[in-house]
Amino acid sequence: MNLVRFMNNRAPANKRYQPTEYEHAANCATHALWIIPSIVGGVLLYFLSDDHWEEIAAYLYGAGLSSLFIISTAFHTITWKKSHLRSVEQCFHMCDRMVIYFFIAASYTPWLTLRELGPWASHMRWVVWVMASGGTAYVFFFHERYKVVELVCYTAMGVFPAMVILSMADRSGLCELLVGGGCYVLGMVFFKSDGVVPFAHAIWHLFVAMGAGIHYYAIWKYLYTPVNQQTSTAR
User: Fold this and answer.
1) What pLDDT digit, counting tens, does each position of 178-188 carry?
2) Where are the transmembrane segments (predicted)?
């Protein structure tokens, strides 16, 4: 079967790739499937919380995780239906890019809040949210203008806080963090492969779902199950 017929030609550098009908359906389905599990997962962590800091971490992480899948699905659905309200589509596209920054910050929050860190590393608890705010401002002012710069920003925010995680006295869960991070990194190859690999964006979505699933498992197992609960230095 010739898979090329399922994708369009690669878009010029200054234009957005236009998926085929098949790709639109795949883009929607591959993140819509995880909306309910992400909401349930966030609620589960909240009810497993034993104190105020665990509740805050669970709320922020659950909100970031579910928002990623909800906004992504909404944007791809609006785009697929070819809405005549171009301003609405543009708004959701910007939100789709913005939420990635907050998702990254939310994913780090449980580790930076509930694990004991070195004295300088503890500042990363709020630095990640400053970075997310900066990324949001960048999208607002320079959306789709410098795609390579945007990719570098996502990568930097995903990797830089990870250096702090290495300072944890208790490194249980580090293997899962690295594997999950590896899923994101591998997925980025497909994130930039629209028009080169059929269903590239949907494949990217699957790598995101795998990475998020592995990271969720690590947070649940090492930070929220009773035998592994850690004492936050922020308490």
Assistant:
1) 999 999 989 98
2) 31-49, 56-78, 98-114, 126-142, 148-166, 203-220
- What is the CA angle 184-219-65, rounded to 5? 55
């990271």: which residue's tokens?
A: 215
The span from the CA of 172 to the CA of 195, in Å, is: 40
- Which residue, 3, 56, 12, 19, is CA-closest to 205? 19
Q: Report the alpha-carbon distance of residue 6 to residue 2 in Å, rounded.
A: 8
Report, in angstroms and rounded to the nearest whole number, the Rg of the chain calculated over CA atoms.
18
DSSP state of 220: I
Q: Give the other-Cβ count within 10 Å of 160's Cβ.
A: 14
Q: For domain 20-228, which architecture applies? A: Up-down Bundle (1.20)
- Which pLDDT does position 89 carry in this prediction? 81
Angle separating helix axes 21-32 and 200-219, nearest 10 degrees: 10
How far is it, in rounded angstroms, from Cα 63 to Cα 67? Answer: 6
Q: What is the pLDDT of residues 185-218, one digit of tens each?
A: 899 889 888 888 889 999 999 999 999 999 999 9
Region for residue 32 given its phi and psi (left: phi exceeds 0; alpha: psi -120 to 50; beta: otherwise): alpha
- 145 CB-near residues (< 8 Å, 6+ apart): none
Alpha carbon 90 to its chain centroid, in Å, reads 20
Number of Cβ within a 10 Å radius of residue 183: 19
